[in-house]
Structure formats: C-alpha cells, structure tokens
Write a structure and sequence with these properties.
single chain, 584 residues, alpha/beta, Beta-Lactamase, Rossmann fold, 5 domains, 22 helices, elongated, disordered N terminus, GAF-like_dom_sf, ATP-binding, ATP binding
C-alpha cells in the first residue's frame, strides 16, 4: 500500500540519475526499480516479447485447468464488487503467464496495445515493476499505480494483484485487476482482489481434499507397482509392498521423491473423475535394493559419495570416512551397514577418544556377546564404527590391528570395521599418531566428504529434506534458502540443521526479517571466534604446560608425553588444537 502516487518527476530523476531522494515509494517498489535498472530493462519500453506459441499456451491451459475453472467461478463475485467501473481481470499461472483475461471492451483493447494478453508473460524481468510481478515475488497482495510502474508502457494503468495458494501454501497463480490510471479507487480494488484470491485458494484446498478422498477410496494404490499422486504432483498412495519403506514420502512432492530415489518413471497415466483430471498413476522403476533414508545432494561430489557407498556396501571391505565435523560421516556409516550383507546384525558406534585398550578389549570379549539357548556366545557378525580413529591410543591401535589380522585369517568371523577422521589419516601416519601397519588395514576403501561450503547446491536439498522430515513448511522458506546458501557452515550439515531447529522454535508465528535470519547463520561463526580468542584459565595453563615440556625436551615428543602423562596421539591433537608453534 502507498500513501500517494509519486510524480513523473520522481520517476524521471531515477531513470536519469538513479536517485530516489526524496520519494514516497514503498520498499518493494524501490527494490523493484533498482532490480529493473540492474537488469538493464528499457524504461521507455515495457512491452513483453515473451509470448507462448499456440501449442505452448494450450499446454499451459491444460496444466492449469482446475485453477482457471475455480477462478472463473469466483470472478463473477469480483465483477459485482466492481460494477460500474472500467477494468480488466487477469489470471496468471505461478510463472506469470496470463491464462485468462476478462473485462470491459475498451480496456481490453487498450491492454492489447501493450501485449497485456493471454499467453504473455507478465513478470518484472519482462515488463518492469508491476503488481503481478511483485505479488508473485513477495507472495502478498500488491498494487502499483501510474508512475510507480518502471516501464512507460504501463504508466497509464492502476493494477492490484494478489497471490493464490494451494494446500501446501505454495503459490499457484496470481489474480489481478487493472484499470486506466486514476479511473478507480485502488485500495478498495486491492481489498476485493485479495478477498477473491483467498476464496480461490480455499476452493482449491477443498477440491484437493475431495480428490484425495476419491483417490484413497479407489483401488488405484494397489494396482501394481504404481505411485498415485494428486493433480499438483503430491504423493497420496504407494504400492502396499512399498508402504513401509517409503511411508515418510506420503504427502511429499513427486519431484523430490523422483530426485532422491530415482525410482519414478517418466510415464504419467491420467486419473479422471467426472471428466476432470484429478491425479496420475506413475509406474515405479525396478527396485535397486539400495536403502537411503536421507537427503540426496545435487552436487557432483555428493553424488560420487553415494556411488561409492553403493559400490562398497555389499562387500565386507573396511571403509574409512574422512571429512570435517558435521558433514554426516556417522549417517553414511549407518547407510553402509544398512546396505551390507549383515544389515540385520548389530551396528556399534564407538568414539575413539573414549576407547582405551581395556575398554576395547572388554567390548570385544564381553559386549559382543548375546545370550543363546545354549550359552553366551560371541556375536559372529557386526558392523563396528570407530569415530575419530586418530584419537585411538597406540596400545588400542595394536589391539585393533591384531583383530583385523585375525579377521583376515578367520573368514568365518564377519566383524566389519568402518572408521572415520576429520583429518587426512595419511598425515597422521607421518606424524606418528597412527600405526602404519594399521593404516593399511583401515584405509582399504577411503571416502572423502567435502564440506558443505564447497557444495552450496546441496544446501537447498538439505533444507527441503529437513522441512519434509519435520513437517514444517513456513511461507517464508523461499526467502531464506538463498540467504542460507551464502553461509559458510563451518559445522556443516549439523550446524545447518541446528540453525533450522532454532528458526523452527523462534519463528512459529511471525516471519523473520532477513537480518534475523542472517544473525542465525552467524551464531556458530561468532561462537567459534569467541572460543578461539577467549581461552579460559585452564586452557591457558594446559597450553603453557605443553609448551614448557616440549621446550624442555627440545621437541622430543616421546619425552614430553611422559612428563605430561598423556598419550602421543593426545599430545599431537592438542598441539594442533591450540596451534602451538616455535617450541624448539
């Protein structure tokens, strides 16, 4: 909403000088003007060249048949509200293509002169600042009057537009009313347009509910290997034999299911009801047998990781996962186990910082036992995931080496080991932290997981996965995806999900501002900076003790570890952690 329409002089000054001082534009229109200028739009034109061919237009009409039907039913009410005024009513799809136009004849003719007609795309990039484009971008009712339009072709017009949403709060179209400049009470028109757009949205939701009930009442979902989805491509039924495996996908979009499972064919079989398309049956591709319960990234590096897991999981080969904290090493270890020949056997996760020789020995001799009908018996099959192998003490490493050598000799035992580290294990071998013989056993099949900041294209896929998993779909999620894609995410996927958790708690009702979202992205980075620069007294004491011991023994690590009463691996880890240098 605006207070008064800015004059031609304000527009002229902006076009000539790029200045908006002084002006009385709302922020959305100011931002749009700057966007149009940045994109190099000609302000003296504004007539769209983006027009669908007859074939393309017919295809759009077919795709949006229900939207058009519901809009026409509600437009009659809008015409009653605006009786006596001269205007044209426009309906666009979610992409801004005009699907339907109706109005007073002279106004329609005037609209034709600027190609404001069916099949034309009416977005900001095509014609400059306009109500349809703004309503679509900001997902809220907008009006643009006279010289608030960026392009000259539209400056004789008053326009009011409001978005139309489906049951998933996704925009599916825009309703617009346009009249010649100064011929109509625009705030009243905007209120009417919003009322009718909301009515169309409500009718859409009712119709989708009716269609869903019909699809679930029928036997479509049990007739062979088919997915059943609604007209807007959301899954409502799966084959009975797949319901347990894919049950979390009910209610999700077909496109994401296809992208993340690769199980959907390109064939869409229409489902009709009362001569109207209400959904599709989609055959499933042959099952690969690969179990995956997470998000599949879009980046080349992440796809390579998935391919590596598919290749190694069916074997008994020892796998080593390397990547920064929070990239998902634990999840991938679990995935390898779930797709292995011993997937029904136990999966144990042990962190090496807590794993002394005695604990490891007790685990292998006692914890890996299960009560059978006859006696306690050592489990013959298990996957053992050792996190941060670089923190395993040398005595524990020697015991693990003995176990791996024994496993190689006794093929009937199937203890599969998966290890992980945040550092390149080859460097740890050179530093004497990892036993070289052990290295050759655990480094049989290394998989590197790149940090999230090096694969930004995966961030949106991870956000979508988080939202689906938590059944949380805020209207403002589109605005935040681009901002989150710019984050550094030093804590990787874990930090991203922590941030989303905070947003889900803090912004239940009101949408956050861009600055509030940006602050959530910066929290972890600020914490890292504070923890690095503001060491507590105990930490300072430890740094001094290590430095003194190393200087005393002229850099001899073995002698320093004796004096400090810590393992060689721990000392190297603390030297790296505290960045201790110049101790010789």
């Amino acid at each position: 909403m605006t207070g008064k329409v800015d004059t031609k002089e304000v527009w002229t000054r902006f076009i000539q000088e790029g200045s908006l001082e002084p002006a009385n534009l709302i922020p959305e229109i100011e931002e749009s003007w700057h966007l149009c200028r940045q994109k190099g739009l000609n302000p003296h034109d504004g007539i769209t060249d983006c027009i669908l061919t007859p074939e393309e237009f017919e295809e759009r009409l077919a795709e949006n048949e229900l939207l058009i039907t519901l809009a026409k039913q509600n437009v009659k009410r809008l015409q009653k509200f605006l009786r006596g005024w001269r205007f044209v009513i426009i309906l666009t799809d979610k992409d801004g293509y005009i699907l339907y136009k109706e109005g007073e004849n002279s106004i329609s003719i005037a609209a034709e002169t600027i190609r404001f007609k069916e099949g034309a795309k009416w977005g900001e990039i095509e014609v400059g600042t306009n109500a349809i484009g703004l309503a679509a971008r900001y997902k809220k009712p907008m009006m643009v009057r006279g010289y608030e339009h960026f392009s000259k072709a539209s400056q004789q017009w008053n326009c009011s537009a409001a978005p139309i949403f489906n049951q998933h709060k996704e925009m599916i179209g825009v309703l617009n009313v346009s009249s010649l400049y100064q011929s109509i009470n625009q705030p009243y028109v905007l209120a009417c347009v919003k009322l009718i757009a909301d009515s169309i949205s409500l009718d859409w939701k009712k119709k989708m509910h009716e269609d869903m009930e019909f699809l679930l009442r029928t036997t479509f979902q049990s007739s062979g290997q088919y997915i059943v989805c609604t007209i807007d491509k959301y899954i409502c039924a799966l084959p009975k034999n797949l319901q347990q495996k894919y049950q979390n996908w009910i209610g999700s979009s077909l496109s994401r299911f296809a992208q993340e499972t690769g199980a959907v064919s390109a064939v869409h079989i229409p489902i009709m009801h009362h001569h109207r398309l209400i959904g599709y049956r989609i055959p499933l591709r042959a099952e690969t047998g690969f179990v995956w319960n997470g998000s599949r990234g879009l980046s080349k590096s992440y796809k390579q990781v998935l391919e590596s897991i598919k290749n190694v999981a069916p074997t008994d080969t020892t796998v080593h996962l390397v990547g920064e904290t929070g990239v998902g090493k634990k999840f991938l270890a679990s995935c390898i186990h779930e797709n292995s020949p011993i997937s029904t056997a136990p999966f144990y996760k042990l962190h090496c910082s807590m794993l002394t020789k005695d604990i490891l020995q007790r685990f292998l001799s006692t914890d890996l036992q299960r009560l059978t009908k006859k006696r306690h018996q050592v489990v013959e099959e298990a996957t053992i995931f050792l996190e941060e192998i670089g923190e395993l003490s040398i005595p524990s490493q020697q015991m693990l080496l003995t176990i791996l050598q024994e496993k190689e000799r006794q093929h009937h035992k199937s203890y599969r080991f998966i290890t992980s580290s945040t550092k390149d294990i080859r460097d740890l071998v050179e530093q004497g932290i990892i036993d070289q013989d052990l290295f050759y056993y655990i480094y049989a099949y290394p998989i590197y997981l790149s940090p999230l900041r090096e694969r930004n294209e995966d961030i949106i896929a991870l956000i979508d996965y988080y939202c689906d998993k938590n059944n949380w779909h805020p209207e403002w999620r589109i605005n935040w995806k681009l901002l989150f894609s710019k984050g550094q995410w030093y804590g990787n996927v874990r930090e991203l999900y922590n941030t989303l958790d905070r947003c889900r708690i803090l912004y239940k009702e009101d949408a956050p501002t861009e600055e509030q979202l940006y602050e959530q992205v910066r929290i972890a980075e600020k914490h890292m900076q504070k923890s690095y620069h503001r060491k507590d007294p105990k930490t300072k004491f430890e740094i001094q003790a290590i430095t003194n011991a190393l200087k005393k023994h002229h850099g001899n690590v073995s002698e320093a570890t004796k004096e400090l009463n810590m393992s060689r691996a721990t000392l190297y880890r603390k030297i790296k952690k505290y960045q201790i240098k110049n101790f010789l």
